[in-house]
Predict the structure of YqcC-like protein.
Amino acid sequence: MDARFPLIAEQLLLIERELRVQGSWDEVSPSAEALASVEPFSVDTLEFEQWLQWIFLPRMKVILERDLPLPNASGILAMAEMVYAQRPGQGRGLQRLLAQFDRLIAETR
């Protein structure tokens, strides 16, 4: 098991918590078609927060549960910065958490 797994698992929980706190946690899943997007971050079918909830968090959970290799890099913060540039004053806590996630992924094993 990668030594970063416990830290990443904790970070994922913090990201979920922040989505809930900021009111961006959906109780109903987007359509199967929306979830099947092949565009990066599903920008054509989902809001960024939906992508985090319905694609990113579940995929990372599978990686951790199955002891699969972690991604070599993560650019989630850059996407969050682009999204929140359009919404001044929003998403600061989420961006901080995503920056920490990116740092954890970038660390050597």
Notes: The radius of gyration is 14 Å. The chain has a mean pLDDT of 95. Helices lie at 5-21, 32-35, 48-65, 76-85, 92-106. The chain has one domain: 5-26+42-106.
